[in-house]
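2024-03-11 09:14:02 DEBUG pipeline.ingest accepted 1 chain
2024-03-11 09:14:02 DEBUG pipeline.ingest length=297
2024-03-11 09:14:03 DEBUG pipeline.predict start
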Amino acid sequence: MGEGARAKVAFLGLGKMGRGMAGRLLDAGFDVAVWNRNPAPAEELIARGARHAATPAEAAREAQAIFTMVSDDNASQSVWLGADGAATTVTAGALPIECSTVSHQHALDLAKALRARGLIYIDCPVTGLPQAAAAGELTLLVGAEAGDLDKARPFLAPLGHTIRHFGPVGAGTVYKLINNLMGAIQIAGIAEGIAIAEQAGLDMALVREALESSVVASPQVLRHAPRMIARDFSNPTFTAALRHKDARYAAALAETLRLELPLSRAAVTSYERATDAAPDDDEGRIVEVISTPHPRD
């Protein structure tokens, strides 16, 4: 598209996922304004042509779509509805697209608040690792009215080829919480199995080989078991604190549905311990917490 015709987009939150996603929007030809609480991660994007914004409000001014990829409910609330939040300047009819993993209730409350300002809220959490974000290969989990999703598709297209439309606003977040809760249960289970094998004195090279060719060799096992056995977390992708947050949000949703989920509660507890020990470290380090033997009574 020509320079004068470039649609304006704001991207708020430039962590490992957000940087790659904002880069994809730049490569697609959008006029992208970027904001991050710590401005350093924006430097590479600015060098590629992004516009730096000092506040979410500045980034959102005149934007047709505003993406957020932040850590939790509190961060999302701040970037949208804080004193310098995007909602203070965004134009009626614009598309707020929440890609963060937030709680279901927060998605509903934020949608209501932004709709009251004449905005079209879409919850669009994603699945995929940072390299998928940079390559435009994410899976987008959408909650929106069908017509609103159609309006958003041109902005979503650079981020991933797969859009799963689960229903109205909030539905994408429900599925994302399910996905990440199941991940928490599986990863904690892998750590517990490895801890048993180590304490029982098994040959861990053989354990790894057996796991990778067994019926339990899920993608999580294939990714995490070798790293846990080697205690090699040199290529972190997701922190213990984020996994704990997502599991908590999922468990809270289950409570509103009056579901009794003991495995979910156990995963929340396990990741609470891991977060207390190393909140900003790779989630796989949960094996170090689990594998420490408890003293006998």
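2024-03-11 09:14:41 DEBUG pipeline.report The chain has a mean pLDDT of 95.
2024-03-11 09:14:41 DEBUG pipeline.predict end
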